[in-house]
Amino acid sequence: MLTDAPPRKGGRARFVESDRMLTLDLPQDGQLFSSTESIDWAMNADVRRACAEFLDATSQFYGVSACGIRVLAARPLRVREHWTSELFGDYAPETMLIRVWMRTAVRKEITSFGTFLSTLCHEFCHHLDFQRFGFPDSWHTRGFYERAAALYHYARGTAPKRLFWVPFRGERWRIDWPRTNRSA
Ligand SMILES: [Zn+2]
């Protein structure tokens, strides 16, 4: 931030007064704070509507029942996903409900658009696993991540990336990100 230079002529005294006034009276009852919470809620409502439109269209394309969507301001206490340490959504197969949240658990930073959309596609792929492919569970397999990535890149209009995998202990696989990003 950069301050203005003092006015060349006239009003200099008021400029100095402004410069020295370092505090502002604030209401004690928290009334203004509750208004900003409404702004927060309204933004979430807009995001929710946009997500619902995306999910409705996508469900229609794949011929599955539409899933519900809930957009939360912060990560709820109980989440279903237990795979990644920093995650932004979950999916409940019984109720076909996707939940996404907009802030990280730890640092309370707002989720980036890319991460948010990627989460939405990831959770939708859980929905597809049950509703379209009829899997008894929705595992995070290599194929699962490939499907989620395909949907994400399509939805974002970016070129699909080939994912490179390296074996991990216990018959698992992890993405080799340096190699995957190099090849993009
Ligand atoms: Zn998942």
The helix-strand sequence is HHEEEHHEEH
Q: State the end-to-end distance.
A: 38 Å
Mean pLDDT: 87
How large is the count of helical segments?
Answer: 5
The overall strand count is 5
Bound molecules: zinc ion
Strand portion:
5-15%
The radius of gyration computed from the alpha-carbon positions, rounded to a whole number of angstroms, is: 23 Å
The coarse overall form would be: elongated
- How would a textbook summarize the main sheet? 3 strands, mixed
Low-pLDDT segments, ≥5 res: none
Looking across the biggest beta sheet, what order are the strands in? 1-3-2
Structural class: alpha+beta
Helix content: 40-55%
Tags for this model:
45% helix; two-stranded antiparallel ribbon; 184 residues; single chain; alpha+beta; three-stranded mixed β-sheet; 5 helices; binds zinc ion
Describe the structure.
The chain is elongated and about 75 Å long. The chain starts with 11 loop residues before the first helix and ends with a helix. Helix content is 45%, strand content 12%. It has five helices and five strands; from the N terminus they run ααβββααββα. α3 (113-131) packs across α4. It has 184 residues and is α+β, with helices and mostly antiparallel strands. A three-stranded mixed sheet has the order 1-3-2. Strands 4-5 form a two-stranded antiparallel ribbon.
In brief:
This protein has 184 residues and is α+β, with helices and mostly antiparallel strands. Helix content is 45%, strand content 12%.
Strands, helices and their partners?
Elements: H1 12-20, H2 31-62, E1 68-72, E2 89-92, E3 97-101, H3 113-131, H4 142-156, E4 165-168, E5 172-175, H5 177-183
Parallel strand pairs: 1-3
Antiparallel strand pairs: 2-3, 4-5
